[in-house]
Amino acid sequence: MKPLHISAYTTVSALGRGNAAMLEALRAGKSGLQPLHFPPAELKTYVGFVEGLEHEPLPEELAAFECRNNRLARLALRQDDFEQQVAALRERHGASRVAVLIGTSTSGILNTELAFRRRNEAGELPVEFDFVHSHQLSSLVDFVRRLLQLQGPGFTVSTACSSSAKVFADAWRLMAAGLCDAAVVGGVDSLCLTTLYGFNSLELVSAEPCRPADSQRNGISIGEAAGFAILEREPVEGSRGQLLGFGESSDAYHMSTPHPDGLGAVEAMQAALARAGLASSDIDYINLHGTATPSNDRSEDRAITTVFGTNTPCSSTKGWTGHTLGAAGITEAIIAMQCIEHGLMPASLNTRQLDPDFGSTILLEQRETTVNRVLSNSFGFGGSNCSLIFGGRNDHPLP
Predict the structure, then answer these.
(1) What is the pLDDT of residue 258?
(2) Kind plus residue range of the DSSP H or E element containing 16
(3) Fewer CB under 10 Å: which end of the chain, C or N?
(4) 353/37 Cα distance (integer angstroms)
(5) For the whole model, what pTM was predicted?
(6) What confidence score (pLDDT) does residue 399 get?
(7) What is the pLDDT of residue 397?
(8) Cross-strand bridge partners of residue 152
């Protein structure tokens, strides 16, 4: 596999707006989690909340797309000069040769939830409710393509928590097939009642900030985020890094629980290493899926030790952002790039007492050191797995 070059990236999450806010929080060990204050929901839990979205409606010409999820997408696109980077991308390749591939798990479902609360006595939804433009999964890609004035292939990936990791693999496949020359990839997921109450009904939501890999971990902290990156065949001036490899697999084991021995995760990580032409010893740091549920963390630990042994440093960054579900893949891909660019291995935030049954090297303290390659894991409900390997802009895979 020939690496793809990452020309630019941008992110918004509970850590703030833009790449600098994320880096500052990571360096400071400052979590973005806070007690839930989200008027439609009443649960005792912590969430990764993006401040200010309720005060930033879409402009009138985009009013049909009005929903929290599309607001979040637009907010991210306006950070880090990303729109200007896309304008330069259009000049290089032409609008019809740039794909837009975005992952989300729930899209604008909050709009539908609120619309159902406003039904009239006949059970009819409000006349202004627009399902196609605000909730339907394809609305997100349609919205972003319009904002960025792009006309290449476009589709949404919705595979739960691996959604916005898989878009990187899809971008490589589209370029390999000659269907595009570059791609804007990303992920957007916003807070909604379906995920908050749905995970709560499964007894997977923690009443405190999540504690990945902790012996007393008891569930996730749901977050919301949006992120985007530009992938190209060849580097351009100012390129940020490279996608060296990807691996995908399906557990086909259970509707929600991962395989207890992490067999699907093992396959995804091994496939990513093989595509990149790398050995497990070539990976400096692993960003775990690390949701802080008992079964997920246990199975991932077993998978890590199977592929990497017990010495590769790894941690979960969900103690910073919360589990951003369909946006987890892109959020943690950007964290991986920050680690490489700035020589950082984050600790597993909020982890107090490491599970004694774990064999992997979970970082409990932050490391400032050279990081050349990072593997980032994203594992979705039903065992929809994706592992990505990132390297610096001058990295080259082994022969």
Answers:
(1) 82
(2) strand 16-17
(3) C
(4) 29
(5) 0.96
(6) 44
(7) 54
(8) none
User: Is residue 397 situated within a structural domain?
Assistant: no
Residues 6+ apart with CB under 8 A from 351: 211, 212, 213, 214, 319, 362, 364
- Is 203 contained in some domain? yes
Q: In this structure, which amino acid lies at residue 190?
A: S
Q: How far is CA 75 from CA 81, 93, 167, in A?
A: 12, 25, 20
Q: How far apart (Å, rounded) are the C-alpha atoms in residues 62 and 293?
A: 39
350: three-class secondary structure by DSSP: coil
Neighbours of 280 (CB within 10 A): 17
* 202 domain-assigned: yes
Helices vs strands, H then E, count in the chain: 12, 16
Report how far residue 118's alpha carbon sits from residue 267's, in angstroms, rounded to the nearest whole number. Answer: 46
CATH number at residue 372: 3.40.47.10
Indicate whether 398 belongs to any domain: no
Which two structure tokens, joined as six digits, stand for 321?
């952002």
Q: Which residues of the chain have pLDDT under 50?
A: 398-399
Domain hosting 279: range is 4-391
Alpha-carbon gap, residue 380 to 251, rounded angstroms: 10
Q: How far apart, in whole angstroms, are the C-alpha atoms of residue 27 and residue 47? A: 21
User: What is the number of other CB atoms lying within 10 angstroms of the CB of residue 225?
Assistant: 32
Q: So which residues are the catalytic ones?
A: 161, 289, 323
**Number of domains into which the chain is organized:** 1
How many whole angstroms separate alpha carbon 397 and alpha carbon 337?
Answer: 16
Q: How far apart are CA 214 and CA 198, in angstroms?
A: 23
List phi, psi (to 5°) of 217: -60, 145
Residue given tokens 């898989």 in the structure block: 166
Which residue reads 């020939």 in tokens?
A: 2
Residue 176's pLDDT is 96
C-alpha 385, offset from chain centre: 13
